[in-house]
Design brief:
By secondary structure, the chain is mainly alpha-helical. It contains 7 helices and 2 strands; from the N terminus they run H-H-H-H-H-H-E-E-H.
Amino acid sequence: MAAAALMAAALAMIFFYVPTDADQGYSQRIFYFHVPIAITTYGLFAWAAVNAARYLWRRDPSLDLKSYVPMHLGVVFGSLTLATGSIWANVSWGKWWVWGDTQLTTFLIIFLFYCAYFMLRFSVEAGDRRATYSAVYALLGVGLIPLSVIGVHVAQTNDLIHPITFNEHGANMDGSMFATFLVAVAAMAMLAVTMYLVELRGKRIDDRLRTIRRLAEARA
């Protein structure tokens, strides 16, 4: 409910409140989707790493699931980040992708690293060993996120097409744009939390049904 309300407010502000950007025109509105989705992606990967560290500390199988689910959602949101970014670039600059842009390339490398997580996880039989390998990989991945931040700073020193939304002075936008941006970030984060809880509940139900089925087969 909160996610739906925030998303409705964000859409209303994006399409009816915030002024059209003087440089990029109406297409700049995709910024209010693209950047919040990217921030949410990093948040999901960070939450996966937190639960991975907790698993390695406590060896609680439920924490392995709490690390896996945000990792899965992070890849979904990461795909949306790449898609919205490419659409925005093509509309604004006539290019789907610019390999010379440090920020774009760094994000793609991080995204592919997290995609490989699933190859590792599902190549190992379910159990403690798989959970341990997955947790270590998740922790290694979160260490790559600062590279994206460094990529932003490097991009600011080069004459590249990727817009700089934040610099050392803060947000590079006026008050109405910043307010819309904050609401969009809150809406996307709440959507991710809702999806996390729904998927977590679904996975737990699957696990219980699988356990019941094994017990029934053992008694048969």
